[in-house]
Amino acid sequence: MIIVTGAAGFIGSCLIQKLNELNFNYIIAVDDFSFEEKNKNLIGKKIKERVERTQFFAWLDSNFREVEFIFHIGARTDTTEFDKAIFDDLNVNYSKEIWNRCVEYQIPLVYASSAATYGLGELGYDDDESKIPGLKPLNPYGDSKNDFDIWALQQEKKPFFWAGLKFFNVYGPNEYHKGRMASVIWHAFRQINEKGSLNLFRSHRPDYGDGEQMRDFIYVKDLIDVCIFFMEHRKNSGIYNLGTGIARSFNDLGKSTFAAMGKETVINYIDTPIDIRDKYQYFTEANMTKLRQIGFTQPFHTLEDGVKDYVQNYLLKKAYW
User: Fold this and answer.
1) Do 214 and 169 form a contact (C-beta atoms < 8 A)?
2) How far apart are CA 148 and CA 80, in angstroms?
């Protein structure tokens, strides 16, 4: 029995799909299932039981003997939400409850952290755990993820195996429901479809050209492969970056999306909004040495290959994975 929290969401539903493909069908899906658009991500997937997020701990206390692994992917991920209490409740305290039960019931745990913990990258993007308390996230979402990472590292009692994964810029199928919080690729596809052109932010720094701001974009299928690796590996507990290790520009992303759609590239540059300009990241790139050193050797999709698969096999067909 494998538990996936955030099961109806973007990454959670992709994880269930991959588990099904590997013949893991005894899946317990945990989420708030009141959002119909999100539930479409689970159509056709093999799931043993759906458990409402608010009922999960009571359920786990009754069924823990059967549980083999927990993937805690669920979280409030809205970077524009500034009510700290929401994040304390859903991201920090809920995660602590899961952690404590994994300790008590001897269940291995993989949980989703975030590259949002790195803020503007003043300390770099190195998953050295000694640096985590000094990180300065830019919003309450990033704070909540960092707060839990710090708390986890401080615990004397830990699950016999655990890993926190700092997701960088994830894109791929099953994010139709995310709206404003969907990946840049999803927004680019939509914009190109509607207007035949793409707007990117102009650079407001002399050391970067327009559209040359860079991010570490990781295809969700690669991210899921790393999650599965940890489920099978079950040693080297700790906090790990999860990007590709190669930063790419928004211009590259735009060109890849146009190419995947078979359209001519037309990019316009617009001013970065004043309210986010001073907090806008110009560069993120995961240092992936730590994950490679413990034996994960699979190559990641290039941006071009990942975008092509996403656009041609999912977005153009309105398909789910």
Assistant:
1) no
2) 19
263 is catalytic: no
The residues facing 147 across adjacent strands are none
Residue 32 carries which DSSP code? -
Cα 98 from Cα 163, distance rounded (Å): 13
Given 111, 141, 219, 310, which residue is catalytic? 141
Q: What is the pLDDT of residues 264-296, one digit of tens each?
A: 999 999 999 998 888 888 999 999 999 999 999
- Whether the CB-CB separation of 15 and 69 falls below 8 Å is answered with no
Q: Which of 73-87, 157-171, 275-289 has the highest mean pLDDT?
A: 157-171
User: Which residue is catalytic, options 178, 263, 269, 282?
Assistant: 178
Contact 289, 128 (CB under 8 A): no
The answer, yes or no, to whether residue 90 has pLDDT greater than 90, is no
178 part of the active site: yes
